[in-house]
Amino acid sequence: MSYSFYTHSTAIKDMESNKGELELLPQIRTRNRNISNIDPVNMLSSIDTGSFEQGVGSNPGPWASNLLLDCAKAIMEKEMGKIQQLLWMLNELASPYGDCEQRVAAYFLQALFCKMMETGPRCHKTLCAAVERSCCFDSMRKMILKFQEASPWTTFGHVAANSAILEAFDGENCLHIVDMSTTLCTQWPMLLESLATRNDGTPTLRLTTVILRGMSNCNSVMKEIGQRMEKFARLMGVPFEFSVVYKEEDEELDLKRIELRPDEVLAVNCVYSLQRLKHKDSLLSALRNMNPKIVTVVEEEVDLESGDFYERFCECHRFFSLYFVSLEESFGRTSNERLMLEREMGRSLVNILACPDNCEHREKSAQWAVRFDGAGFEPWPFSDDAVDDVRALLKRYKEGWGLNTVNSQGLFLTWKEQSAVWVSAWKPK
After folding, report:
1. Is 124 within 8 Å of 355 (Cβ atoms)?
2. 48-62, 190-204, 297-311: least confidently modelled range
3. Residue 211 pairs with which residues in a beta bridge?
4. What's the pLDDT tens digit per position in 338-357?
5. Nearest Cα to Cα of residue 261 among 197, 326, 205, 188
6. How far, in Å, CA of 47 to CA of 82, rounded?
7. What is the dihedral of CA 373, 304, 66, 83, to 10 degrees?
8. Buried b / exposed e across 5-15, counting CB within 10 Å, b at 16+?
9. How many of the other CB atoms lie within 10 Å of CB of 225?
10. Which among 8, 257, 270, 342 has most CB atoms closer than 10 A?
11. Mean pLDDT throughout 33-50?
């Protein structure tokens, strides 16, 4: 019986071309050699696997959830025998090339194994280095655009934030956006097009993008992005200026490095960037001191800061399983873009669950609302037009996506009625 992390012949070929990213495999094999004499029949009878008995066929029950949650609890309680049994079962059944349950099991297994072996930081560094070697700007850009075409996960926030920013800029002629986001400026062509057709004349726009310097070839990438943006702005007839502020991974952003001009109206746009901050309150206070007219925020609706390891794991499993299921509905099983997105989530799982000093500090909208209030901000309500724009966007995607406007903390993108992403807007009190 093979104890490989992957079970398909195509995966074996992929392993040969991605040895750095899959460094974890030899460790799992070594661990399994030590427990290869376990009788799987007795193991199945001794572990509560819920609906696992439905099988791992084309329509399996939630076997991955049952095994993963049991394994996380066993790790927290240090039940080594049970941990070994559950890891063995997961290792046999998981595959990043299989159905959704198998993919979820594969990436969570990697994180749990790193947690148990205390190899999270080394594994995460290896996974990130593999991406640096194999990914280029064109493949990353293609992945982002394909994701936006297939799923509203990012376009939802872009449309809602752009609508709020355009309302804040209404009637103003000199505009400045400080963009703290991870989507390589894909948000801004839509806004430039809207500015070009504004009834009260075309304003000037200055865009300052804050980028982590750790991104592969970040200087050349941002130079190309700037050239693309400037070319599109000329096509739209919008006077445009582009600049970049670089930030190191562990560096606290010094907002004094961002040039502010007295004749400009300022908007700050934060898309999936606040979750990586350790000093959230100090940054929000610094943003308040910049006196922006509006701050737009897009984040994922998940709390990975509260509770013990098992409670954080349960919340992590709930949210990331939702993400994986949404990818299942949006992409084919062999999609390269889907595999890139899932591997990105796999790296996040290792970081969140197995690295003591992880750099992803995710909180829910209610927690962020308290932070913004304490920093001197109040909500900027989304207009009916903004809500209509979002509803029109969601009609372009498959059934299952929805909009929740009940919560006063912003707009919520839902998948199968579960909140996935939220967008909010804020103004100084």
Report:
1. yes
2. 48-62
3. 246
4. 999 999 999 999 999 999 88
5. 205
6. 8
7. -160
8. bbbeeebeeee
9. 20
10. 270
11. 37
pLDDT digits (tens, 9 = 90+) for 349-394: 999 999 988 878 889 999 999 999 999 999 999 999 999 999 999 9
To the nearest 5 percent, what fractions of the chain are helix, strand and coil?
55, 15, 35
Q: Which whole number is the average pLDDT over 268-276? A: 89
Per the CB < 8 A criterion, the answer to whether 156 and 421 are in contact is yes
Structure tokens that stand for 47 in this block: 């572990």
- Residue found by looking up tokens 């800061």 in the block: 305
10 Å CB burial of residue 371 (0-12, 13-18, 19+) is middle
Cβ atoms within 10 Å, residue 201: 8
Distance CA 111, CA 24 (A): 10
Tokens of 7: 């079970």
- Vertex 353 angle, CA 348 and 359, to 5°: 55
Tell me which residue has tokens 């995966």: 11
Residue-wise pLDDT tens digits, 103-147: 999 999 999 999 999 999 999 999 988 887 777 777 888 888 899
DSSP state of 252: P
Instruction: Give the separation between CA 232 and CA 240, rounded to whole angstroms.
Output: 10
**Measured between alpha carbons, how far is 345 from 272 in angstroms, rounded to an integer?**
13
The label of the residue with tokens 């009916």 reads 384
Which amino acid would we find at residue 179? D
Amino acid at residue number 349 = L
- Collapsing DSSP states into helix, strand and coil, what is residue 118? coil
Measured CA to CA, the distance from residue 283 to residue 277 in angstroms comes to 8
| pLDDT band, very low/low/confident/very high, at 37 (cuts 50, 70, 90) | very low
Name the amino acid, one letter, at 380. Answer: W
- Cα-Cα-Cα-Cα torsion 118, 120, 125, 126, nearest 10 degrees, comes to 80
Q: Is the CB of residue 161 less than 8 Å from the CB of residue 298?
A: yes
Average pLDDT, the chain: 83
Locate 372 and state its tokens: 């913004």
